[in-house]
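Ticket opened by: R.M.
Priority: normal
Category: complex prediction / small molecule

The reporter submitted a protein together with S-adenosyl-L-homocysteine and asked that the result be attached to this ticket for the collaborator who will pick it up next week. Submitted input follows.
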Amino acid sequence: MTVNLLDYDLEGLAAYCERLGEKRYRATQLFRWIHQKGASQFDEMSDLAKSLREKLKTTSEIVPLIVKSQYESADGTIKWLFEVGGGDVIETVFIPEADRGTLCVSSQAGCAVGCRFCSTGHQGFSRNLTAGEIIAQLWFAEHFLRKHLKSTERVISNVVMMGMGEPLQNYAHLVQALRVMLDDHGYGLSRRRVTVSTSGVVPMMDRLGADCPVALAVSLHASNDLLRDNLVPLNKKYPIGELIAACQRYLEFAPRDFITFEYCMLDGVNDTAAHAHELVSLLTGSGRGAQWCKLNLIPFNPFPASGLVRSTQKSIAEFSKIVSESGLITTVRKTRGDDIDAACGQLAGDVKDRTEVMKRMAKQRVIPLVPVGVGQISSFLESAND
Ligand code: SAH
Ligand code: SF4
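Result attached by the on-call engineer:
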């Protein structure tokens, strides 16, 4: 069986080269060819000895993801659906902005957490992505975009692990892929520009702080345990008190001096003035103050099976006013892409359901390039994420 070289961080590739009887520094050359130049064929790697290239051809591969479809919006946002075998489809979204290019990356096919407001959660869990499949999303997008935008410079400056899946439930592969993102011989992204979003897998938050402290976003969505138990079932295992304590511990290692909290606004469920006041005491209580966190209010991106409704603009504005006045730095996401219901997880969810996707395609006239929306990540992009 051949080895997928995308599965390796630089250290792993060096060990692999040694196993092939090669010097470790060869790994740096190979790694740069793959990640910095986007090479997928060993014959492209002109400064590697022919004998090494031949050895690599018989032992290894650079395995790309299979593009199922690509959608491009007028504002330059691009969404890809990738086939990862067994009928599973994952998605990756690129969002260009004036001062940065952000890629939203998936960590699993489906998700086991099962949040009520999340389309991926409703699909259930299929499997963990390998490190190679996680990094292949960045590898593909970066090199595709350089060609597409005719850029000789790096196009993707930020990565957010906010696509499908719970990254901290695929910990080993996540960290392996993060190391490639951060490596100067790989994508050279700073820790501040790589964000892991989690529904709150407390022990793994501590491990991430120790192993690979990147920026952290926590999906809170509720101001008390009763409500959060209902919206984010993982809360029954790691309740809010433990989650906040883990966030405070993470701050010691974090590349930024704050944690971002995401809060999906659901009509009549978590969006009243009483919830806003409760959220303020939760985040700023026990003498913590308001400076250690940022709050992202995300208008719910509806999908039929959820039975939930997006909060009205009025309640979002009132909620936002209360939390802001307490000193919490708060952003509200502008809604984008409602026209095609393309929150992360939603399109791929449909692909599994063939009848539904046919109906949807007919409705939306999905052709290779059509407008796309990014439900759950654009909120984050509006927060100060330099
Ligand atoms: N599993 C991780 C990362 C992926 S989800 C997590 O939960 O944090 C990324 C963000 O999108 C999370 O904050 C999630 O709660 C939010 N989200 C999921 N479905 C959504 C929807 N339908 N509308 C708005 N935000 C949603
Ligand atoms: Fe999983 Fe995140 Fe969706 Fe919850 S919000 S089901 S953790 S992907």
